[in-house]
Amino acid sequence: MRSTLKFLIVLAVSLLVMLVFRALAFTVYAVGGKALEPDFKAGDRVLVNRWSYGLRTGGGGLFDYGRICRQMPAVGDFVAFEDTTGDVMIGQCRALPGDTVSLQGKGRVVIPGVSRCDRHDCYFIDHGGIVAEEQIIGRVVAVLYSRRAGTPFWRGYVSDRYLLSR
What we know:
The chain is mainly β. It has a single domain, classed as Umud Fragment, subunit A (Ribbon). It is 14% helix and 36% strand. Strands 1, 2, 5, 6, 9, 10, 11 and 12 form an 8-stranded antiparallel beta sheet that branches. Strand 5 and strand 6 form a beta hairpin.
C-alpha cells in the first residue's frame, strides 16, 4: 500500500513537471501544407523554444503583455506565431522593425517598430505578413519527427525526418 502511494506521488509530480516544462520551455507544433518546403514538409512535428525571444507573459485579462529576457528574432529564423484567428503558424522572419518590404497591392511598406506600432515591435514573416511581437511564440529549433496524415498513430512515420536541427 505504501509503495503504491509513493509510486502515484512520483507519477503525479513527474506529470506536473512535464506539463510545466512544456508550457514554459519547449512545445511541439505540426507543420501543415507545403508552403515551407523544402525546409519543412507537411506532417513535420517541430520543437519550438519558447524562451528563444524571451518568455511571453500576460496578454490575457489580468496582466499586460511582456517578455522576460526579451530578444529580437533574426532575419532567417523560423518562428512559430499565432495568426489573427489564434491558430499557430510556422514562418520565416524576413524583415525586422524599420526594414522596408514590398507588399502586393500596397507597394513598399516600412515594418513598424515601437515608435510606429502602437505598443510593440512588428516583424515581416512569410505566410503571416506583418506580425506583432506579442504574437510570436518562439523559434523552431528542430524537426522531431514527421508523420503522414490519415495514418494510424503507430504507422506513417517518415524515416528520414527524425531530429533534424534548424
